[in-house]
Write a structure and sequence with these properties.
The chain is 56% helix and 12% strand. The protein is built from 21 helices and 10 strands. Strands 5, 6, 7, 8, 9 and 10 form a 6-stranded mixed β-sheet that branches. It has a 4-stranded mixed β-sheet with strand order 3-2-1-4, sandwiched between helices. A hairpin with a 2-residue loop joins β5 and β6. The N and C termini lie far apart (68 Å).
Length: 587
């Protein structure tokens, strides 16, 4: 029977103070159902639950339509805490009615993506647990212990029903009886009770064995359950788990369609803005940035004389590497500098330097690159999409930062990421950071002790140990402050990469003193087992010069590491009352 939505709205609006009405249609167990979500304005002294008979009266003649009533404040709160169900039901396409001039509640693509990622991560955790309980039931049934087998089935079903309740309410209660939990869920899915608990007396009696088995095991009592009943309950358990997953995938599919629509809409708006900016500037470079799809360069204070070179360089990267996405981490341009994602530089410096992460499906052996055009230099770290997806799922702080806070300069239209993002475990992160700092600071102090020893007299060995001191110090600094250093890159490139934070490291190794510059060039060379003959200027130096430089480098790197540890402790909000002693080891 066709639903007369206008008739329903007319009847309801005459009898109650509606704020919004949504009509959801969904498939469950191979049938289509219609569900009304009635959103009411709060009324003093009156519970919205007493209005159910009025709604039932208004729906007379409209078959196969279930409903639920919710206050507007409660709906907004459930959406805010990440309810997948209410985020889906309140989509603009299901909206039938809005009071006054109000618009339908509609989440943005970022919020919708977050809801899907949370739900996907939850499903990933719940599914293997429930399957484990089913396997446990098979094991106990094989031993003839049907009470424990049914207890295992109860736990698997409860786990999946908790999952469904979390998708709806954003959290689950601690009710262990399946009967009670299903009755509360039946408000949202009207066939759940009949489908799961059963329609006949025999089915309901068998279903009650789930809760009976749970109570018996909990109270350490015996309960006789036949093999026939246990077999029926096992099949019924698989049916329930499958039905819950059908609902999850149905809502996930609907949210994904909405997300794709919002993303396409946003990209179209960005494209329109880019085209408008290009026409206004009447510049060929402006046109190329529009073709790059999603360029937001106009949002940054690029000096006019650098615009052309920056656009040219980005277009060159796009053509040569065919990336999925280009993200801006930091920039230093004339008298302007970017809000670094990992630090906040106190002074503006340098010419036009931009620091990028380029995402590709396959990056091969190219992890890091520095390219220039005119007065503009781009420092690029290449990451593959599988790597960023895996790191986001593990709660990597580096991936979190670049994914959520970087500026997207380009995104391929076919790249539509929907990754599961786990929160950062700051307690675990700080523990690992501290452990790394204790090990590596002790290692740096050990290297310094060797270099400043009175009996130490080899200039060649001094250069090699200084190289190791710098490598250990830079990797330690990057691990603590950022959480990532591009692999397989030289020490000089490592110094360049530290500029995603600020330019302190680069400035330290850039000197106006000629001899110091020669020494820096030597200690920053890739060693890899090769022994380079020292330049004449270094071969004639007094050993005290090497020892003094070793102390300066060690002090700088130790201070940098200590500051970074304090910075991360403050950023985590956990606290900084931690020991900074040292022991031997390797990162």
């Amino acid at each position: 029977m066709e639903i007369n939505s206008q008739l329903i709205i007319d009847r309801l609006s005459q009898r109650m103070d509606l704020d919004r009405v949504y009509l959801l249609n969904y498939r469950f167990l191979n049938q289509e159902y219609h569900h009304l979500l009635l959103v009411l304005k709060p009324v003093n002294g009156l519970s919205h639950k007493v209005l159910k008979p009025i709604v039932e009266l208004c729906l007379i003649g409209q078959e196969n339509v279930s409903f639920e009533i919710i206050l507007i404040g409660e709906l907004l709160n459930k959406i805010k805490i990440g309810s997948m169900y209410y985020s889906y039901v309140s989509s603009a396409r299901f909206n039938l009615y809005c009071s006054g001039k109000k618009n339908a509640i509609s989440l943005g693509h970022k919020e919708l993506k977050s809801v899907m990622e949370i739900a996907a991560e939850l499903y990933k955790q719940v599914s293997p647990v429930s399957m484990g309980f089913l396997q446990g039931a098979e094991t106990f049934a094989g031993q003839g212990s049907y009470l424990r087998a049914v207890f295992m089935l109860h736990q698997g079903i409860e786990n999946h029903l908790r999952f469904l309740q979390t998708l709806i309410d954003g959290k689950a209660n601690n009710v262990h009886h399946l009967n009670s939990r299903i009755k509360s869920l039946d408000e949202h899915f009207s066939t759940l009770k009949a489908s799961f608990i059963g329609n006949t007396e025999e089915e309901r009696a068998r279903f009650s064995l789930y809760d009976a088995a749970f109570n018996a095991v909990k109270q350490n009592k015996d309960l006789e359950i036949s093999a026939v009943d246990a077999s029926w309950l096992y099949d019924h358990s698989k049916f329930i788990l499958d039905a819950v997953e059908q609902l999850y995938f149905s809502f996930m599919g609907g949210l994904h369609i909405e997300y794709e629509r919002l993303l396409a809409e946003m990209e179209a708006q960005q494209l329109a803005k880019s085209k408008a900016a290009a026409e206004e500037k009447k510049s060929d470079i402006g046109t190329s940035s529009v073709k790059a799809n999603g360029s937001v360069l106009h949002a940054f204070p690029w000096p006019e004389h650098d615009q052309s070179a920056i656009h040219h360089l980005l277009d060159q990267i796009r053509r040569e590497h065919t990336p999925e996405q280009i993200m801006l981490l930091n920039y230093y341009v004339s008298n302007a500098y970017g809000r670094a994602l990992f630090d906040y530089p106190s002074t503006a410096c340098g010419t036009a330097d931009i620091y990028l992460v380029v995402l590709k499906k396959r990056i091969g052996s190219s992890y890091f690159r520095k390219v220039s055009y005119g007065k503009v230099t781009a420092v690029i770290s290449f990451l593959n999409t599988d790597f960023i997806a895996a790191k986001l799922q593990k709660g990597s702080r580096f991936s979190h930062t670049i994914w959520n806070e970087s500026a997207i300069l380009f995104r391929d239209p076919s790249y539509k990421p929907c990754y599961a993002i786990a929160p950062i475990n700051w307690a675990d992160t700080l523990s690992k950071i501290e452990h790394c700092w204790k090990r590596n600071s002790a290692l740096m102090r050990g290297l310094l002790d060797i270099l400043t020893n009175d009996n130490f007299s080899s200039r060649q060995l001094a250069v090699m140990l200084l190289n190791q001191l710098i490598v250990v110090g830079l990797h330690t600094y990057l691990y603590i402050r950022i959480g990532y250093a591009p692999p397989h890159i030289s020490t000089e490139e490592l110094i360049e990469w530290t500029c995603v934070c600020d330019k302190r490291v680069k400035a330290f190794f850039s000197s106006k003193d000629a001899v110091e510059n020669i020494l820096n060039a030597e200690v920053l060379k890739p060693m890899k087992g090769r022994i380079h003959a020292l330049p004449q200027e270094l071969a004639q130096l007094d050993m005290d010069y090497f020892k003094s430089r070793a102390k300066d480098i060690a002090d700088f790197l130790m201070d940098l590491g200590g500051q970074s540890l304090s910075y991360m402790e403050a950023k985590s909000g956990i606290g900084a009352n931690r020991s900074k002693g040292g022991d031997d080891g390797q990162q």
